[in-house]
Specification:
The longest helix is centred in the N-terminal third of the chain and has 15 residues, at 2-16. The protein has one domain. The protein is built from three helices and 15 strands. By secondary structure, the protein is mostly beta strands. The protein is 14% helix and 39% strand. The protein starts with a helix and ends with a strand. The strands form three sheets. The chain has a nine-stranded antiparallel beta sheet with strand order 1-6-7-12-11-8-13-14-15. Strands 3-2-4-5 form a four-stranded mixed beta sheet, with helices on both faces. Strands 9-10 form a two-stranded antiparallel ribbon.
Length: 254
Amino acid sequence: MKLATLFLVTMFSLVSSLDAETIHFRSSIERVSLLELYTSEGCSSCPPADAWLNKLKGDPGLWKNYVPVAFHVDYWNYLGWHDPWSGPEFSQRQRDYAAEWHTEDIYTPEFVLNGAEWRNWFGLRATPGSTGQKVGVLEISSTNNALWNVTFASVAEADGKFEVHAALLAGGLSSEVKAGENSGHILRHEFAVVELVQIGLTTSNGVVRGKFLLPFTRHTAEKNLAVAVWITRAGEIVPLQATGGWFKAGQAVE
């Protein structure tokens, strides 16, 4: 615990000296959908799903109606190609959903929308629209791209404990696959999760508050970066509200 505290203080001291404008993202009061894709560069069925998700970068509903994230799982790496964006924690998140749904099946590509399996994405032109469900406003802000403040003002009484989940997303990624089922193909990715953190929050005067540190690693400095944040009840996986957006060098990108 002392080491973790020292790390947080040290990181804050380093980044607080940077001259950066405040980055601020805010959801509407209506529920913003969390759209998750579980994918792998080692899966021959995944490129169409990746391509569909990539097109959302120019969609007017992006960040307003939905927040997209792509989790690259690691259980296809044994086929001979190690997906550079994969992680065991992403595979475990998919398994946690399977447990929530009382099934043992996990597969790629798999879309999850607001905590529920979403099978009818293929061939659709429509993207997730407004749910119309008023749940509360989720806000995040940072002055240094690393240490973030988060608040959630729920329309209902904020009873119980909550958690914030924050993902650093990278776009403009590409891989020249040299082995496995997609050997010889160049695969491109947007909204790829490269860091994922989960922190407990506190409730004061009906508002849920907290801070989280989002590290910059895995060669993301030169990529298009975004942050995706969603809130859940403690110990649960289904998101209550989400927000996020692109940012670069301390300046939010609208």
